[in-house]
From TrEMBL:
Localization of this protein: Cell membrane
Name listed for the protein in its UniProt record: Acyltransferase 3 domain-containing protein
Source organism of the structure: Candidatus Gottesmanbacteria bacterium RIFCSPLOWO2_01_FULL_46_9
Acyltransferase domain residues: 9-326
GO function term, MF aspect, one: O-acetyltransferase activity
Membrane topology: Multi-pass membrane protein
Keywords, sorted A to Z: Cell membrane, Membrane, Transmembrane, Transmembrane helix
GO biological process, one term: enterobacterial common antigen biosynthetic process
Similarity section: Belongs to the acyltransferase 3 family.
Amino acid sequence: MKTSTRFFYIDCIRAVAIIGMVITHVLALHLDSPGMSILWNYLHFVVVGLVFCSAYVFAASRPKDEVIPRRLWVTWFGKRVFRLYLPFILYVLVHYSLWYALPTLFWGYGLHKSVSYVISTLLLTGGVDIGWLTLLFIQLAILSPFLLTVSRNRKIMPLVFITYTAITLIMSFYRIPIQDSRMIGWLPWSYIAFLGYVYADTQKHDARLANLYVRGALVVGVLLFIILRITISALGQSLMFSVHKYPPDLYYLSYGIILTSLMLLVISNRAFTFSPVTRFITFLSKRAYAIFFIHIIVLDFVWTTMHLVWWEEIIVIGTLSVLATYVWDRLQKKLSLRQTYDPRLGDTD
Protein backbone atom coordinates (compact mmCIF):
# COMPACT_ATOMS: atom_id res chain seq x y z
CA MET A 1 0.00 0.00 0.00
CA LYS A 2 1.41 3.35 -1.01
CA THR A 3 0.02 6.77 -0.25
CA SER A 4 1.21 9.43 -2.71
CA THR A 5 5.01 9.07 -2.67
CA ARG A 6 5.02 7.39 0.76
CA PHE A 7 4.88 3.73 1.71
CA PHE A 8 2.29 3.46 4.43
CA TYR A 9 3.35 0.09 5.80
CA ILE A 10 6.85 1.51 6.22
CA ASP A 11 5.34 4.53 7.97
CA CYS A 12 3.54 2.14 10.34
CA ILE A 13 6.72 0.28 11.24
CA ARG A 14 8.61 3.51 11.83
CA ALA A 15 5.74 4.87 13.95
CA VAL A 16 5.73 1.70 16.05
CA ALA A 17 9.52 1.94 16.38
CA ILE A 18 9.54 5.52 17.67
CA ILE A 19 6.70 4.79 20.11
CA GLY A 20 8.64 1.76 21.28
CA MET A 21 11.73 3.90 21.76
CA VAL A 22 9.84 6.37 23.96
CA ILE A 23 8.48 3.52 26.07
CA THR A 24 11.95 1.95 26.31
CA HIS A 25 13.49 5.12 27.70
CA VAL A 26 10.68 5.54 30.23
CA LEU A 27 10.99 1.93 31.39
CA ALA A 28 14.76 2.36 31.73
CA LEU A 29 13.96 4.43 34.82
CA HIS A 30 12.03 1.53 36.39
CA LEU A 31 14.35 -1.44 35.93
CA ASP A 32 14.16 -2.29 39.62
CA SER A 33 10.82 -3.91 38.79
CA PRO A 34 11.23 -7.40 37.19
CA GLY A 35 8.18 -6.89 34.98
CA MET A 36 9.40 -3.52 33.71
CA SER A 37 12.86 -4.98 33.10
CA ILE A 38 11.43 -7.79 30.95
CA LEU A 39 9.26 -5.41 28.90
CA TRP A 40 12.17 -2.99 28.50
CA ASN A 41 14.40 -5.82 27.27
CA TYR A 42 11.98 -7.10 24.62
CA LEU A 43 11.35 -3.62 23.21
CA HIS A 44 14.93 -3.48 21.93
CA PHE A 45 13.91 -4.34 18.37
CA VAL A 46 13.00 -0.74 17.57
CA VAL A 47 16.30 0.43 16.06
CA VAL A 48 16.23 -2.51 13.65
CA GLY A 49 12.88 -1.22 12.43
CA LEU A 50 14.19 2.33 11.99
CA VAL A 51 17.26 1.23 10.01
CA PHE A 52 15.17 -1.11 7.84
CA CYS A 53 12.65 1.63 7.03
CA SER A 54 15.34 4.16 6.14
CA ALA A 55 17.05 1.66 3.83
CA TYR A 56 13.75 0.66 2.23
CA VAL A 57 12.75 4.21 1.37
CA PHE A 58 16.22 4.98 0.00
CA ALA A 59 16.15 1.98 -2.34
CA ALA A 60 12.47 2.26 -3.29
CA SER A 61 12.85 5.85 -4.46
CA ARG A 62 15.88 5.21 -6.67
CA PRO A 63 15.40 3.22 -9.93
CA LYS A 64 17.89 0.45 -10.61
CA ASP A 65 18.82 1.54 -14.10
CA GLU A 66 19.22 5.28 -13.46
CA VAL A 67 22.73 6.69 -13.22
CA ILE A 68 23.06 9.47 -10.65
CA PRO A 69 25.79 12.08 -11.30
CA ARG A 70 28.43 12.23 -8.59
CA ARG A 71 27.69 15.91 -8.05
CA LEU A 72 24.11 15.09 -7.04
CA TRP A 73 25.30 12.39 -4.66
CA VAL A 74 27.58 14.90 -2.96
CA THR A 75 24.71 17.39 -2.69
CA TRP A 76 22.39 14.74 -1.28
CA PHE A 77 24.97 13.61 1.24
CA GLY A 78 25.60 17.18 2.43
CA LYS A 79 21.91 17.82 2.96
CA ARG A 80 21.42 14.43 4.60
CA VAL A 81 24.22 15.00 7.10
CA PHE A 82 22.87 18.49 7.80
CA ARG A 83 19.41 17.07 8.52
CA LEU A 84 20.89 14.44 10.82
CA TYR A 85 23.47 16.50 12.69
CA LEU A 86 21.63 19.83 13.12
CA PRO A 87 18.71 18.39 15.13
CA PHE A 88 21.21 16.65 17.39
CA ILE A 89 23.11 19.88 17.99
CA LEU A 90 19.86 21.73 18.67
CA TYR A 91 18.87 19.03 21.13
CA VAL A 92 22.19 19.28 23.00
CA LEU A 93 21.98 23.09 23.10
CA VAL A 94 18.36 23.19 24.27
CA HIS A 95 18.70 20.41 26.84
CA TYR A 96 21.86 21.86 28.39
CA SER A 97 20.34 25.36 28.41
CA LEU A 98 17.19 24.18 30.17
CA TRP A 99 19.22 22.21 32.69
CA TYR A 100 21.41 25.19 33.56
CA ALA A 101 18.62 27.78 33.52
CA LEU A 102 15.92 25.70 35.25
CA PRO A 103 17.63 23.14 37.48
CA THR A 104 14.47 22.66 39.54
CA LEU A 105 12.58 21.53 36.43
CA PHE A 106 15.30 19.49 34.71
CA TRP A 107 17.81 17.19 36.39
CA GLY A 108 19.97 16.79 33.28
CA TYR A 109 18.98 13.31 32.13
CA GLY A 110 21.94 11.86 30.22
CA LEU A 111 24.04 15.04 30.58
CA HIS A 112 27.24 15.88 32.47
CA LYS A 113 28.80 19.24 33.38
CA SER A 114 32.16 18.52 31.77
CA VAL A 115 33.89 20.28 28.89
CA SER A 116 35.40 17.04 27.61
CA TYR A 117 31.97 15.39 27.79
CA VAL A 118 30.40 18.18 25.73
CA ILE A 119 33.22 18.09 23.16
CA SER A 120 32.96 14.32 22.71
CA THR A 121 29.19 14.76 22.42
CA LEU A 122 29.52 17.31 19.61
CA LEU A 123 32.10 15.15 17.84
CA LEU A 124 29.83 12.09 18.22
CA THR A 125 32.74 10.12 19.67
CA GLY A 126 31.13 9.78 23.10
CA GLY A 127 29.27 11.91 25.59
CA VAL A 128 25.47 11.86 25.37
CA ASP A 129 24.37 8.26 24.87
CA ILE A 130 21.76 8.97 22.21
CA GLY A 131 24.43 10.49 19.95
CA TRP A 132 25.28 6.98 18.76
CA LEU A 133 22.08 6.89 16.67
CA THR A 134 22.94 10.15 14.89
CA LEU A 135 26.43 8.85 14.15
CA LEU A 136 25.02 5.57 12.86
CA PHE A 137 22.70 7.26 10.37
CA ILE A 138 25.50 9.55 9.19
CA GLN A 139 27.71 6.50 8.66
CA LEU A 140 24.95 4.75 6.74
CA ALA A 141 24.38 7.90 4.67
CA ILE A 142 28.03 7.77 3.61
CA LEU A 143 27.80 4.08 2.77
CA SER A 144 24.28 3.92 1.33
CA PRO A 145 25.15 4.50 -2.37
CA PHE A 146 27.84 1.81 -2.21
CA LEU A 147 25.71 -0.61 -0.18
CA LEU A 148 22.75 -0.18 -2.52
CA THR A 149 24.96 -0.86 -5.55
CA VAL A 150 26.29 -4.02 -3.89
CA SER A 151 22.79 -5.20 -3.00
CA ARG A 152 21.79 -4.93 -6.67
CA ASN A 153 24.73 -7.01 -7.88
CA ARG A 154 23.46 -10.59 -7.96
CA LYS A 155 26.94 -12.04 -8.33
CA ILE A 156 28.52 -10.62 -5.19
CA MET A 157 25.49 -10.03 -2.98
CA PRO A 158 25.22 -13.66 -1.77
CA LEU A 159 28.89 -13.65 -0.76
CA VAL A 160 28.52 -10.31 1.02
CA PHE A 161 25.43 -11.55 2.85
CA ILE A 162 27.18 -14.72 4.00
CA THR A 163 30.14 -12.66 5.18
CA TYR A 164 27.91 -10.33 7.19
CA THR A 165 26.13 -13.31 8.74
CA ALA A 166 29.46 -14.84 9.76
CA ILE A 167 30.74 -11.57 11.24
CA THR A 168 27.62 -10.93 13.31
CA LEU A 169 27.59 -14.59 14.39
CA ILE A 170 31.14 -14.34 15.72
CA MET A 171 30.26 -11.09 17.48
CA SER A 172 27.49 -12.94 19.34
CA PHE A 173 30.13 -14.83 21.32
CA TYR A 174 33.15 -12.52 21.23
CA ARG A 175 31.92 -9.13 22.34
CA ILE A 176 33.61 -5.96 21.13
CA PRO A 177 34.19 -3.36 23.88
CA ILE A 178 31.24 -1.00 24.05
CA GLN A 179 33.52 2.04 23.77
CA ASP A 180 34.48 0.86 20.26
CA SER A 181 30.91 0.22 19.14
CA ARG A 182 30.33 3.70 17.70
CA MET A 183 33.15 3.36 15.20
CA ILE A 184 32.30 -0.13 13.95
CA GLY A 185 28.56 -0.24 14.60
CA TRP A 186 27.83 0.56 10.96
CA LEU A 187 29.17 -2.86 9.93
CA PRO A 188 26.51 -5.08 11.55
CA TRP A 189 23.80 -2.46 11.04
CA SER A 190 24.53 -2.60 7.30
CA TYR A 191 23.15 -6.14 7.48
CA ILE A 192 19.70 -4.68 8.15
CA ALA A 193 20.21 -2.03 5.45
CA PHE A 194 20.85 -4.80 2.91
CA LEU A 195 17.59 -6.49 3.89
CA GLY A 196 15.76 -3.19 3.40
CA TYR A 197 17.31 -2.67 -0.04
CA VAL A 198 16.54 -6.19 -1.24
CA TYR A 199 12.97 -6.07 0.02
CA ALA A 200 12.32 -2.67 -1.57
CA ASP A 201 13.69 -3.71 -4.97
CA THR A 202 11.74 -6.97 -4.92
CA GLN A 203 8.54 -5.28 -3.77
CA LYS A 204 8.60 -2.94 -6.77
CA HIS A 205 8.64 -5.80 -9.28
CA ASP A 206 7.02 -8.76 -7.55
CA ALA A 207 4.99 -8.19 -4.39
CA ARG A 208 4.29 -11.90 -3.95
CA LEU A 209 7.99 -12.75 -4.09
CA ALA A 210 8.72 -9.96 -1.62
CA ASN A 211 6.12 -11.46 0.70
CA LEU A 212 7.86 -14.84 0.41
CA TYR A 213 11.17 -13.18 1.25
CA VAL A 214 9.64 -11.74 4.41
CA ARG A 215 8.24 -15.13 5.40
CA GLY A 216 11.64 -16.67 4.75
CA ALA A 217 13.36 -14.00 6.83
CA LEU A 218 10.88 -14.68 9.64
CA VAL A 219 11.56 -18.42 9.62
CA VAL A 220 15.34 -18.00 9.43
CA GLY A 221 15.22 -15.30 12.10
CA VAL A 222 13.27 -17.54 14.48
CA LEU A 223 15.64 -20.48 13.94
CA LEU A 224 18.74 -18.35 14.43
CA PHE A 225 17.29 -16.68 17.49
CA ILE A 226 16.39 -19.98 19.17
CA ILE A 227 19.74 -21.60 18.39
CA LEU A 228 21.74 -18.58 19.53
CA ARG A 229 19.67 -18.10 22.66
CA ILE A 230 20.23 -21.72 23.71
CA THR A 231 23.94 -21.55 22.89
CA ILE A 232 24.56 -18.21 24.61
CA SER A 233 22.69 -19.41 27.69
CA ALA A 234 24.69 -22.66 27.75
CA LEU A 235 27.90 -20.63 27.69
CA GLY A 236 26.74 -18.67 30.71
CA GLN A 237 26.58 -15.34 28.86
CA SER A 238 23.91 -12.67 29.28
CA LEU A 239 20.75 -12.92 27.20
CA MET A 240 19.82 -9.26 27.73
CA PHE A 241 19.49 -7.56 24.34
CA SER A 242 21.14 -4.38 25.61
CA VAL A 243 24.34 -6.40 26.14
CA HIS A 244 24.27 -7.54 22.52
CA LYS A 245 23.25 -4.19 20.99
CA TYR A 246 26.48 -2.15 21.10
CA PRO A 247 27.48 -3.16 18.48
CA PRO A 248 24.61 -5.44 17.44
CA ASP A 249 25.35 -9.12 16.94
CA LEU A 250 23.35 -11.85 15.22
CA TYR A 251 21.45 -12.72 18.40
CA TYR A 252 20.17 -9.15 18.71
CA LEU A 253 19.63 -8.68 14.96
CA SER A 254 17.74 -11.96 14.56
CA TYR A 255 15.25 -10.82 17.20
CA GLY A 256 14.82 -7.49 15.42
CA ILE A 257 14.35 -9.28 12.09
CA ILE A 258 11.61 -11.45 13.62
CA LEU A 259 9.63 -8.47 14.92
CA THR A 260 10.14 -6.39 11.76
CA SER A 261 9.08 -9.32 9.55
CA LEU A 262 5.95 -9.89 11.63
CA MET A 263 5.01 -6.23 11.35
CA LEU A 264 5.54 -6.29 7.58
CA LEU A 265 3.34 -9.37 7.18
CA VAL A 266 0.57 -7.93 9.33
CA ILE A 267 0.60 -4.33 8.14
CA SER A 268 1.26 -4.81 4.41
CA ASN A 269 -1.81 -7.05 4.12
CA ARG A 270 -4.18 -4.61 5.79
CA ALA A 271 -5.95 -1.61 4.30
CA PHE A 272 -6.15 1.54 6.41
CA THR A 273 -9.00 3.81 5.43
CA PHE A 274 -9.60 5.86 8.57
CA SER A 275 -8.01 9.12 7.54
CA PRO A 276 -7.19 10.60 10.99
CA VAL A 277 -5.29 7.43 11.91
CA THR A 278 -3.32 7.37 8.68
CA ARG A 279 -2.42 11.05 9.05
CA PHE A 280 -1.29 10.51 12.64
CA ILE A 281 0.84 7.49 11.72
CA THR A 282 2.37 9.36 8.80
CA PHE A 283 3.19 12.29 11.08
CA LEU A 284 4.89 10.00 13.61
CA SER A 285 6.91 8.41 10.83
CA LYS A 286 7.96 11.65 9.12
CA ARG A 287 8.89 13.31 12.40
CA ALA A 288 10.31 10.26 14.17
CA TYR A 289 13.79 11.77 14.32
CA ALA A 290 12.51 14.97 15.93
CA ILE A 291 10.37 13.01 18.39
CA PHE A 292 13.47 11.00 19.30
CA PHE A 293 15.25 14.10 20.64
CA ILE A 294 12.24 15.97 21.97
CA HIS A 295 11.02 13.07 24.09
CA ILE A 296 14.33 13.00 26.00
CA ILE A 297 13.83 16.61 27.11
CA VAL A 298 10.17 15.94 27.94
CA LEU A 299 11.18 12.84 29.90
CA ASP A 300 13.66 14.90 31.90
CA PHE A 301 10.96 17.46 32.73
CA VAL A 302 8.26 14.94 33.63
CA TRP A 303 10.58 12.79 35.73
CA THR A 304 11.79 15.86 37.66
CA THR A 305 8.49 17.64 38.25
CA MET A 306 5.83 14.92 38.37
CA HIS A 307 5.41 11.82 40.49
CA LEU A 308 3.67 9.36 38.21
CA VAL A 309 3.55 5.60 37.85
CA TRP A 310 5.28 4.14 34.80
CA TRP A 311 2.21 3.85 32.57
CA GLU A 312 1.18 7.43 33.36
CA GLU A 313 4.70 8.56 32.45
CA ILE A 314 4.44 6.80 29.10
CA ILE A 315 1.14 8.50 28.28
CA VAL A 316 2.20 11.97 29.46
CA ILE A 317 5.69 11.88 27.92
CA GLY A 318 4.39 10.42 24.66
CA THR A 319 1.58 12.97 24.37
CA LEU A 320 3.74 15.98 25.26
CA SER A 321 6.49 14.81 22.89
CA VAL A 322 4.10 14.53 19.96
CA LEU A 323 2.52 17.91 20.73
CA ALA A 324 5.92 19.60 21.05
CA THR A 325 7.01 18.01 17.78
CA TYR A 326 3.85 19.24 16.07
CA VAL A 327 4.51 22.80 17.28
CA TRP A 328 8.13 22.58 16.12
CA ASP A 329 6.98 21.20 12.77
CA ARG A 330 4.56 24.08 12.22
CA LEU A 331 7.25 26.57 13.18
CA GLN A 332 9.66 25.05 10.66
CA LYS A 333 7.06 25.31 7.92
CA LYS A 334 6.36 28.95 8.71
CA LEU A 335 10.06 29.77 8.71
CA SER A 336 10.62 27.70 5.55
CA LEU A 337 13.39 25.68 7.18
CA ARG A 338 12.68 22.50 5.24
CA GLN A 339 15.19 21.20 2.71
CA THR A 340 14.32 19.52 -0.55
CA TYR A 341 15.96 16.61 -2.31
CA ASP A 342 16.55 15.87 -5.95
CA PRO A 343 13.81 13.32 -6.81
CA ARG A 344 16.39 11.12 -8.53
CA LEU A 345 18.12 10.55 -5.20
CA GLY A 346 15.09 9.89 -3.10
CA ASP A 347 14.33 11.04 0.40
CA THR A 348 14.75 9.03 3.56
CA ASP A 349 11.88 10.51 5.54
